[in-house]
Fold this protein.
Amino acid sequence: MNDTPRIRTVLSCTLMALTFTAAGSACSGSEDHPLSAKPYDAGQQISFSAPTDGKKADPDKPLEITVKDGEGRITDVTALDEAGHHLAGELTADGQRWRSTGALTAGGRYTVRVSTENEDGAPGTRTYTFETAPAERALLVAFGPEAGTYGVGQPVTAELSRPIEDKAARAVVERALKVRSTPAVEGAWHWVDDKKLHYRPKEYWPAGASITVSGNLDGVKIGDKLYGGASKPLKLTIGDRIEALADAGSHYMTVKRNGEVINTIPVTTGKPGFSTRNGIKVVLGKEYYVRMRGTSVGIAEGSSESYDLPVYYATRVTWSGEYVHAAPWSVGSQGVANVSHGCVGMSTGNAAWFFETVRPGDIVQTVNSIGETMDTFGNGFGDWNMPWDKWRQGSALTGAAGGAATAVTTNTARLRPSV
């Protein structure tokens, strides 16, 4: 067999490979090509506005990096804080100046890496580190309620140390307040007033949910010389879904646990002139003993409506003094008529059972009363009486919370316990 064609083919391929290798070596071996040069120290080429001698930069002033005498240009700038967050900035088209557009954090530490090139195209680099001064004014946030286990109706609260009226500043604050639930639910913050926010899901919290609340405001610029401070995170657990429905028309209360009826209790609610508030309320706390006086709710001593009674197993649902409690003096009317001064009364045995069954955050709803509707804010947690679409309008991120704050209303005529 004649192998000559095959030999020629192999030799041709070998020559091609040698030619390519030689050409490649000639290119990469050029000592004058900019890409092969070791980056030079660009410190003499650029000017850096932040102090690097141990002094702290003013966080209210933007960071600037400029080229001295127009020698070369800046090609890239990367500025990171200790948490790895990028500081946004803009580089001019001619590469002569970079200026930060994002807000510097107060009391932070930054690392800035600058890339340049000279007039010949050779690359340069320089790394700077600097710190910013702490804030002169800090906005602190306190979350509530206290850590623990609550019912499915418990809102999360955020109390601010300073009033925030500006819409843009509210958005900065709200964006930094994080509520995470397992399982996940849809929820939103609502600005109650300039210093207080409430957070609730669209529906009640899922039974058994775990909730973590945190704030990422530390060092964040909120307004003119106002920065966020550190906040203590909060963890909550949600218990069973306990719902009590007091029907002022039938004079009975139905109590459910996770959707199943566990008790039906004869009750009495507020009589005309002292009618129990309609709507959804949230258990605020429990007091084994409360002394209730008519004078505390504006009833003159000695009048036919006057009272001064020791009350046991009192479960509070409004700050103005509405309770679910033992009322042994009205047992004959329970399940029959409304004779109280606004509270939901029941026998001592039933009140003790209710007291032991519910916890703060559980739902107590009154229907078919001739009374007013529970206030949304200011007299406890009436948050669930506001429709979800309207609730979201109170968010600075999804609604119109930057305008006038939602009014806080309180029925000042009844500021103490009533029976």
